[in-house]
Amino acid sequence: MERAYASPMARYDLLAFDLYGTLLDLAPLAGRLRALGAADPEKLLKDWRKAQLERTWHLNEIGKYEPFDAVTANALAQVAPEIDAKTRARMADEWLTLPAHADAPAAFKAMAAAKVRCTILSNGTAKMIRAALTAAKLDMEVRSVDEVKVYKPDPRVYALLDSMAPRERTLFVSSNPFDSDGCKRTGRIVAFVDRHGQAPTIAPDLRVNSLTELVKAVLG
Ligand code: LAC
After folding, report:
1. Ligand 1 test: best mutation among 17, 22, 142, most atoms within 8 Å of CB?
2. How much is the pLDDT for 196?
3. Chain segment 40-95, per-residue pLDDT in tens
4. How far is the CA of 124 from the centre of ligand 1 (A)?
5. Half-sphere exposure of residue 207, counting CA atoms within 13 Å on the CB side?
6. Is 146 in the pocket of ligand 1 (CB under 6 A)?
């Protein structure tokens, strides 16, 4: 963890969090896919997530938009056409009840106690985000790309935060490297949560190994 940011309680008016992977743990999906009959659930999950994100980037490229629940369903149909439609629908529904990462509940409890304003900023639709937050027993504001009908890392997504707090007092938090990079490219302040995946290509302002470390850095 970088120390330079370890003080400032009043440094940020707003913390904005990516959802899938950052607050919610995607890994348990594999077990659920297995229970629903997937032969190689780890591979299916990896292929599905990749196809899901690639579909959002392709939609951005061609200037089209479809909501993230449709993206998620279509990505699964693309990588696993052999699975019947009913089972695929049940698999897609699992995105609504993903568990929080183990470090999330205490982190948000601490931030609520310190009255730090927190929001989600996610590719998910508001409905998907709210369902997932409820299931994960987390509660905060919700901003969705659905408001601008374009996906991360389009700058219009991160600009949604500008109506909430001054840019220099907003910290965006993500464990998805393309998301951290995308937000950095817009000149905003970014914390990267290293969940042992790929690293971002643009240096984030803060790099932490957990939300616990993030809280320490933000609250001092
Ligand atoms: C999100 C994707 C990037 O929550 O995980 O926006």
Report:
1. 22
2. 85
3. 999 999 999 999 999 999 999 999 999 999 999 999 999 999 999 999 999 999 99
4. 7
5. 14
6. no
Ligand 1 neighbour 179 (Cβ under 6 A): yes
Number of other CB atoms surrounding residue 186 within 10 Å: 18
What is the rounded CA–CA span in Å between residue 118 and residue 166? Answer: 14
User: Amino acid identity, residue 192?
Assistant: F
Buried b (16+ CB within 10 A) or exposed e, 53-78: bebbeebbeeeebebbbebbbebbee
Which backbone phi and psi does 206 adopt, to 5 degrees?
A: -145, 140
**Straight-line distance from the first to the last Cα atom of the chain, in angstroms, rounded to the nearest whole number:** 13
Measure 132 CA to ligand 1 centroid, in angstroms: 12
The Cα–Cα gap between 181 and 124 comes to: 19
> Does the pLDDT value for residue 1 go beyond 60?
no
